[in-house]
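Quick one, T. Sequence first:
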Amino acid sequence: MTTFSARVAWARGEGSFTDGRYSRGHEWSFDGGATVPASASPHNVPLPYAVAENVDPEEAYVAALSSCHMLFYLWLASKKRIGIDSYVDDAVGVMETIDGRTMVSRVELRPRVVYSGEAPERALEERMHHEAHELCFLANSVKTVIEIRLD
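Structure tokens:
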């Protein structure tokens, strides 16, 4: 069994709390030393109580799913001796209310891969994305529908 941890820290600072007029800004700290400024999304909490420039949990969720997929795709390509120069994914998460519960119901991955030399045939590329999805630990952990959209 492997475990993962993150430290999430928030402090009220100045201002009120019980009337809901407090900053949602906080920090995520990870074991490698990275600290990420985080906040509730301005889509959910009005400014100035949300911090627009900080990462919100929904964005992080989409990024984590995209990152996991990408890492497995790169690994599969390397095993097949398919060279890759770059991989960019402008992933999008859709939040909606289903059966009275608000959730990120769907994430669209939109990978654009630049290959070293000749690109694999489209069918192989699609199979590799499917396999990366099947291998992705995070995709296996959630009920969000994850779609891969290739141009």
